Protein backbone atom coordinates (compact mmCIF):
# COMPACT_ATOMS: atom_id res chain seq x y z
CA UNK A 1 0.00 0.00 0.00
CA UNK A 2 1.20 3.51 -0.81
CA UNK A 3 1.23 6.36 1.66
CA UNK A 4 -2.20 7.27 2.95
CA UNK A 5 -4.35 9.22 0.49
CA UNK A 6 -4.45 12.95 1.22
CA UNK A 7 -8.17 12.88 0.51
CA UNK A 8 -10.79 10.49 -0.89
CA UNK A 9 -13.27 11.86 -3.46
CA UNK A 10 -16.85 10.61 -3.17
CA UNK A 11 -18.72 10.26 -6.48
CA UNK A 12 -22.47 10.92 -6.59
CA UNK A 13 -24.87 9.30 -9.07
CA UNK A 14 -28.67 9.15 -9.24
CA UNK A 15 -29.83 7.18 -12.31
CA UNK A 16 -28.11 4.69 -14.62
CA UNK A 17 -30.36 3.82 -17.59
CA UNK A 18 -30.42 4.15 -21.41
CA UNK A 19 -32.39 7.42 -21.70
CA UNK A 20 -30.28 10.54 -22.16
CA UNK A 21 -31.60 12.91 -19.50
CA UNK A 22 -30.63 15.06 -16.47
CA UNK A 23 -29.22 13.25 -13.42
CA UNK A 24 -28.66 10.12 -15.52
CA UNK A 25 -25.51 8.37 -16.69
CA UNK A 26 -26.21 5.96 -19.54
CA UNK A 27 -25.04 2.36 -18.96
CA UNK A 28 -22.41 2.39 -21.72
CA UNK A 29 -21.01 5.66 -20.35
CA UNK A 30 -21.08 4.32 -16.79
CA UNK A 31 -19.21 1.23 -17.94
CA UNK A 32 -16.55 3.34 -19.65
CA UNK A 33 -16.19 5.42 -16.49
CA UNK A 34 -15.67 2.28 -14.37
CA UNK A 35 -13.21 0.83 -16.90
CA UNK A 36 -11.27 4.08 -16.99
CA UNK A 37 -11.09 4.25 -13.20
CA UNK A 38 -9.87 0.66 -13.00
CA UNK A 39 -7.29 1.09 -15.78
CA UNK A 40 -6.01 4.26 -14.09
CA UNK A 41 -5.41 2.33 -10.86
CA UNK A 42 -8.35 3.61 -8.83
CA UNK A 43 -9.87 1.44 -6.12
CA UNK A 44 -13.44 1.84 -4.88
CA UNK A 45 -13.74 1.64 -1.10
CA UNK A 46 -16.47 0.04 0.93
CA UNK A 47 -18.25 2.46 3.22
CA UNK A 48 -16.55 0.84 6.23
CA UNK A 49 -13.13 1.40 4.64
CA UNK A 50 -14.09 5.01 3.97
CA UNK A 51 -15.21 5.45 7.59
CA UNK A 52 -11.96 3.92 8.84
CA UNK A 53 -10.08 6.31 6.56
CA UNK A 54 -11.94 9.29 8.01
CA UNK A 55 -10.82 8.02 11.42
CA UNK A 56 -7.17 7.87 10.36
CA UNK A 57 -6.66 4.43 8.79
CA UNK A 58 -4.59 4.34 5.57
CA UNK A 59 -6.04 3.64 2.11
CA UNK A 60 -4.35 3.59 -1.32
CA UNK A 61 -3.67 7.01 -2.82
CA UNK A 62 -6.09 6.42 -5.73
CA UNK A 63 -9.21 5.64 -3.71
CA UNK A 64 -12.81 6.70 -4.36
CA UNK A 65 -16.21 6.03 -2.83
CA UNK A 66 -19.04 5.54 -5.36
CA UNK A 67 -22.52 6.54 -4.16
CA UNK A 68 -26.08 6.54 -5.56
CA UNK A 69 -29.01 8.58 -4.20
CA UNK A 70 -32.69 7.81 -3.64
CA UNK A 71 -33.00 4.09 -4.48
CA UNK A 72 -33.99 3.94 -8.14
CA UNK A 73 -34.68 0.56 -9.70
CA UNK A 74 -32.20 1.26 -12.51
CA UNK A 75 -29.37 1.18 -9.93
CA UNK A 76 -30.18 -2.53 -9.58
CA UNK A 77 -31.01 -3.19 -13.24
CA UNK A 78 -27.96 -1.51 -14.79
CA UNK A 79 -25.42 -0.18 -12.25
CA UNK A 80 -25.20 -3.19 -9.92
CA UNK A 81 -24.16 -5.71 -12.64
CA UNK A 82 -21.56 -3.29 -13.99
CA UNK A 83 -20.03 -2.68 -10.57
CA UNK A 84 -19.81 -6.44 -10.14
CA UNK A 85 -18.25 -6.86 -13.61
CA UNK A 86 -15.45 -4.41 -12.83
CA UNK A 87 -14.85 -5.58 -9.27
CA UNK A 88 -16.00 -2.29 -7.79
CA UNK A 89 -18.31 -1.43 -4.92
CA UNK A 90 -21.00 1.20 -4.48
CA UNK A 91 -23.15 2.69 -1.72
CA UNK A 92 -26.87 3.29 -2.28
CA UNK A 93 -28.65 5.78 -0.03
CA UNK A 94 -32.31 4.73 -0.06
CA UNK A 95 -35.50 6.60 0.84
CA UNK A 96 -37.08 3.83 2.91
CA UNK A 97 -40.67 5.10 2.65
CA UNK A 98 -40.60 4.53 -1.11
CA UNK A 99 -39.35 0.92 -1.01
CA UNK A 100 -41.82 -1.81 -1.94
CA UNK A 101 -42.19 -5.57 -1.60
CA UNK A 102 -42.07 -8.36 -4.15
CA UNK A 103 -39.60 -10.58 -5.96
CA UNK A 104 -36.41 -9.20 -7.53
CA UNK A 105 -36.80 -7.98 -11.11
CA UNK A 106 -34.54 -8.73 -14.11
CA UNK A 107 -31.15 -7.09 -14.54
CA UNK A 108 -28.73 -6.89 -17.46
CA UNK A 109 -26.91 -9.84 -15.91
CA UNK A 110 -29.85 -12.25 -16.29
CA UNK A 111 -32.24 -10.89 -18.96
CA UNK A 112 -32.40 -9.55 -22.50
CA UNK A 113 -32.98 -5.84 -23.08
CA UNK A 114 -36.64 -6.39 -23.96
CA UNK A 115 -37.30 -8.06 -20.61
CA UNK A 116 -35.83 -5.31 -18.46
CA UNK A 117 -38.04 -2.89 -16.50
CA UNK A 118 -38.93 0.36 -18.25
CA UNK A 119 -36.69 3.38 -17.74
CA UNK A 120 -37.96 6.82 -16.74
CA UNK A 121 -36.27 10.22 -16.71
CA UNK A 122 -35.83 11.94 -13.36
CA UNK A 123 -38.84 14.27 -13.53
CA UNK A 124 -41.12 11.41 -14.56
CA UNK A 125 -39.69 9.26 -11.78
CA UNK A 126 -40.52 11.99 -9.26
CA UNK A 127 -44.07 12.21 -10.65
CA UNK A 128 -44.56 8.44 -10.35
CA UNK A 129 -43.35 8.50 -6.74
CA UNK A 130 -45.64 11.42 -5.91
CA UNK A 131 -48.62 9.61 -7.47
CA UNK A 132 -47.98 6.42 -5.51
CA UNK A 133 -46.56 4.38 -8.40
CA UNK A 134 -43.20 3.95 -6.72
CA UNK A 135 -42.78 0.29 -7.69
CA UNK A 136 -42.23 1.33 -11.31
CA UNK A 137 -39.12 3.30 -10.44
CA UNK A 138 -37.99 2.41 -6.91
CA UNK A 139 -36.28 -0.68 -5.54
CA UNK A 140 -37.92 -3.45 -3.54
CA UNK A 141 -36.57 -4.78 -0.25
CA UNK A 142 -35.69 -8.09 -1.94
CA UNK A 143 -33.45 -6.25 -4.41
CA UNK A 144 -31.86 -4.17 -1.67
CA UNK A 145 -31.22 -7.32 0.37
CA UNK A 146 -29.58 -9.05 -2.59
CA UNK A 147 -27.27 -6.14 -3.32
CA UNK A 148 -26.35 -5.51 0.31
CA UNK A 149 -25.63 -9.20 0.96
CA UNK A 150 -23.35 -9.31 -2.10
CA UNK A 151 -21.18 -6.50 -0.74
CA UNK A 152 -21.18 -4.95 -4.21
CA UNK A 153 -23.83 -2.32 -3.42
CA UNK A 154 -24.16 -1.39 0.24
CA UNK A 155 -27.46 0.10 1.40
CA UNK A 156 -27.72 3.04 3.78
CA UNK A 157 -30.09 5.82 4.87
CA UNK A 158 -31.54 8.76 2.90
CA UNK A 159 -34.42 9.50 5.33
CA UNK A 160 -37.91 8.00 5.12
CA UNK A 161 -39.75 10.39 2.78
CA UNK A 162 -37.07 12.70 1.27
CA UNK A 163 -38.95 15.74 2.61
CA UNK A 164 -37.35 19.14 3.24
CA UNK A 165 -38.94 19.78 6.65
CA UNK A 166 -37.18 23.14 6.89
CA UNK A 167 -39.59 24.20 4.11
CA UNK A 168 -42.67 22.14 5.04
CA UNK A 169 -42.87 22.47 8.83
CA UNK A 170 -44.89 25.27 10.44
CA UNK A 171 -42.13 26.14 12.90
CA UNK A 172 -38.76 25.01 14.21
CA UNK A 173 -40.23 22.63 16.81
CA UNK A 174 -42.21 20.81 14.16
CA UNK A 175 -39.18 20.72 11.85
CA UNK A 176 -37.05 19.06 14.54
CA UNK A 177 -39.79 16.60 15.47
CA UNK A 178 -40.41 15.65 11.85
CA UNK A 179 -36.80 15.14 10.83
CA UNK A 180 -36.11 13.20 14.05
CA UNK A 181 -39.04 10.88 13.31
CA UNK A 182 -37.87 10.42 9.70
CA UNK A 183 -34.36 9.52 10.74
CA UNK A 184 -35.56 7.10 13.41
CA UNK A 185 -37.96 5.34 11.03
CA UNK A 186 -35.39 5.09 8.25
CA UNK A 187 -32.74 3.66 10.55
CA UNK A 188 -35.24 1.23 12.09
CA UNK A 189 -36.28 -0.11 8.66
CA UNK A 190 -32.67 -0.52 7.52
CA UNK A 191 -32.07 -2.54 10.68
CA UNK A 192 -35.25 -4.59 10.28
CA UNK A 193 -34.77 -5.51 6.61
CA UNK A 194 -30.99 -5.56 6.29
CA UNK A 195 -29.88 -6.50 9.79
CA UNK A 196 -27.45 -3.64 10.30
CA UNK A 197 -27.05 -0.64 12.58
CA UNK A 198 -26.76 2.28 10.20
CA UNK A 199 -24.22 4.99 11.00
CA UNK A 200 -24.46 6.75 7.61
CA UNK A 201 -27.00 9.35 6.48
CA UNK A 202 -27.23 11.20 3.18
CA UNK A 203 -29.25 14.43 3.33
CA UNK A 204 -32.21 14.85 0.93
CA UNK A 205 -31.47 17.52 -1.68
CA UNK A 206 -28.21 18.08 0.18
CA UNK A 207 -29.87 20.30 2.78
CA UNK A 208 -28.87 20.22 6.44
CA UNK A 209 -28.56 22.67 9.31
CA UNK A 210 -27.62 22.44 12.98
CA UNK A 211 -31.06 21.06 13.89
CA UNK A 212 -30.80 18.31 11.28
CA UNK A 213 -27.31 17.40 12.46
CA UNK A 214 -28.30 17.26 16.12
CA UNK A 215 -31.31 15.08 15.30
CA UNK A 216 -29.06 12.71 13.34
CA UNK A 217 -26.58 12.47 16.21
CA UNK A 218 -29.38 11.66 18.63
CA UNK A 219 -30.60 8.84 16.36
CA UNK A 220 -27.11 7.30 16.21
CA UNK A 221 -25.80 8.51 12.85
CA UNK A 222 -22.12 9.38 12.76
CA UNK A 223 -21.28 10.13 9.11
CA UNK A 224 -23.23 12.78 7.17
CA UNK A 225 -23.05 12.92 3.35
CA UNK A 226 -23.75 16.23 1.56
CA UNK A 227 -24.02 17.42 -2.06
CA UNK A 228 -21.26 19.99 -1.54
CA UNK A 229 -18.50 19.26 -4.06
CA UNK A 230 -15.99 21.93 -3.10
CA UNK A 231 -14.00 20.47 -0.25
CA UNK A 232 -11.82 17.49 0.66
CA UNK A 233 -12.52 14.35 2.68
CA UNK A 234 -9.31 14.07 4.69
CA UNK A 235 -8.07 11.68 7.40
CA UNK A 236 -9.50 12.83 10.73
CA UNK A 237 -11.60 15.35 8.79
CA UNK A 238 -15.18 16.44 9.41
CA UNK A 239 -17.35 13.30 9.38
CA UNK A 240 -20.47 15.48 9.53
CA UNK A 241 -19.72 17.25 6.24
CA UNK A 242 -18.65 14.65 3.68
CA UNK A 243 -18.16 16.21 0.25
CA UNK A 244 -19.41 14.54 -2.94
CA UNK A 245 -18.87 15.16 -6.66
CA UNK A 246 -21.86 14.91 -9.02
CA UNK A 247 -20.90 12.69 -11.98
CA UNK A 248 -22.14 13.70 -15.43
CA UNK A 249 -23.00 11.58 -18.47
CA UNK A 250 -19.53 12.17 -19.82
CA UNK A 251 -16.43 10.22 -20.73
CA UNK A 252 -14.03 8.37 -18.50
CA UNK A 253 -11.41 10.92 -19.51
CA UNK A 254 -13.69 13.69 -18.16
CA UNK A 255 -14.04 11.78 -14.89
CA UNK A 256 -10.29 11.38 -14.51
CA UNK A 257 -9.87 15.10 -15.14
CA UNK A 258 -12.53 15.88 -12.52
CA UNK A 259 -10.76 13.60 -10.05
CA UNK A 260 -7.49 15.42 -10.74
CA UNK A 261 -9.15 18.61 -9.47
CA UNK A 262 -10.78 16.74 -6.60
CA UNK A 263 -7.40 15.92 -5.10
CA UNK A 264 -6.04 17.96 -2.19
CA UNK A 265 -3.43 19.84 -4.20
CA UNK A 266 -2.85 23.51 -4.98
CA UNK A 267 -4.70 23.04 -8.30
CA UNK A 268 -7.57 21.28 -6.53
CA UNK A 269 -7.91 23.95 -3.86
CA UNK A 270 -7.86 26.77 -6.41
CA UNK A 271 -10.41 24.96 -8.60
CA UNK A 272 -12.72 24.43 -5.61
CA UNK A 273 -12.52 28.07 -4.54
CA UNK A 274 -13.24 29.28 -8.07
CA UNK A 275 -16.22 26.93 -8.58
CA UNK A 276 -17.62 27.82 -5.16
CA UNK A 277 -17.31 31.53 -5.95
CA UNK A 278 -19.17 31.00 -9.24
CA UNK A 279 -21.92 29.07 -7.46
CA UNK A 280 -22.37 31.76 -4.80
CA UNK A 281 -22.46 34.41 -7.52
CA UNK A 282 -25.19 32.54 -9.41
CA UNK A 283 -27.22 32.15 -6.23
CA UNK A 284 -26.85 35.86 -5.40
CA UNK A 285 -28.07 36.84 -8.89
CA UNK A 286 -31.02 34.48 -8.57
CA UNK A 287 -32.01 35.98 -5.21
CA UNK A 288 -31.74 39.47 -6.71
CA UNK A 289 -34.02 38.53 -9.62
CA UNK A 290 -36.56 36.98 -7.24
CA UNK A 291 -36.54 40.12 -5.06
CA UNK A 292 -37.28 42.28 -8.10
CA UNK A 293 -40.10 40.04 -9.37
TrEMBL record:
SUPFAM superfamilies: Glycoside hydrolase/deacetylase
KW Coiled coil (keyword) present: no
Keyword Signal in annotation: yes
GO CC term, one of those recorded: extracellular region
Keyword tags: Signal
Molecular function GO labels: hydrolase activity, acting on carbon-nitrogen (but not peptide) bonds
Compartment(s) where it occurs, according to its Swiss-Prot or TrEMBL record: Secreted
Name of the featured protein: Lipopolysaccharide core oligosaccharide biosynthesis protein
Species per Swiss-Prot/TrEMBL record: Advenella kashmirensis W13003
Amino acid sequence: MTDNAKNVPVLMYHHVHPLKSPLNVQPDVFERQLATLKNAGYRSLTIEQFADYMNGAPVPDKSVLITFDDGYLNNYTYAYPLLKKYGMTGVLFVVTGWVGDGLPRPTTANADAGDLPASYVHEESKHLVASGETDKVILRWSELQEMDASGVMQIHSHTHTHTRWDKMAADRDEKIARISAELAQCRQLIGQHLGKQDDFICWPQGFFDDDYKQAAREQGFRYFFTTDAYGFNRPLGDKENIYRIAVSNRSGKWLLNRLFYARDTIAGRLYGKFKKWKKLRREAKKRAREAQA
